[in-house]
UniProtKB/TrEMBL annotation:
It comes from Thalassospira lohafexi. This is LysR family transcriptional regulator. Residues 1-58 form the HTH lysR-type domain. PROSITE patterns: HTH_LYSR. The keyword Calcium does not apply.
Amino acid sequence: MDHASLAIFRTVAKEQGITRAAERLGRVPSNVTTRIQQLETEIGVALFQRDKKRMLLTQEGETFLEYADRILNLADEARQVVNPSAPCGTLRVGSMESTVASRLPVPLAAYNKAWPDVTIELSTAPTRQLIDALLGRRIDCALIAVPSGEWWLEPGTLDTHALFREQLVLLLPPGHPDIRHASDIKPKALAAFAPGCTYRMLAEEWLTGFGSIKEHFAVQEVGSYHAMFACTAAGSCISIMPRSVVDLMRHLGPVKEHPLMTVDTVLASRPGFETPAFSEFRKTLEAVSDIKK
């Protein structure tokens, strides 16, 4: 088993097919097929379920992919650390949806212009899932929101650099009366991302006083801030999101805003992780940070 075989396996897994993987890798399909067969023979289990159109991972293949990702990512990190001549290689960045929408377009463009030899692989997920991906070495760094003192991130687990201060805003349907407490809210449904989202957690705590959200509000899980905004503007739900995201969507319709609290977005990485590509990425973000050091 070598790194080339692992890289081929990972590409086939992501493309779900030999032909597309071969095109991405610059190899002929027969070579890719042979390498996958050799890898399965060496491991002793089938890694893919094959049909006429797609190749899907078996349960064993899913497990093996996690290890292949870790091995390949660690090898790439090692190459960059021992030969830090200039930023190069791949930087795997995870981020909350809100940060991608409102904070990253300008610095990502600047970074790509300054360091064209670095390939940024950008993925989005809620904070809890991003932390799991960081600790599992599936990504190199992440832009997350972790309130101070939060029990699920012990001190020293990650290195963090505060970059952006977000004001969380409770959005109410247009024409809703002013509120002072959660009990003043008329719609009894909260539009939010899936569990693991820090903003959802803070919303539930504020709405219930640290009680059970199900006893007070129905939760309508949605996949985007646009969906949250639309549900709120239609009058069926309330939602909570950063003001920087609200500012991007005011054209979608009227809503009523009620300020709640501020939460910092931090750049998180594993302790000691310091490749040239990541170092320059951090500097690029610090240049547009709105938090004074």
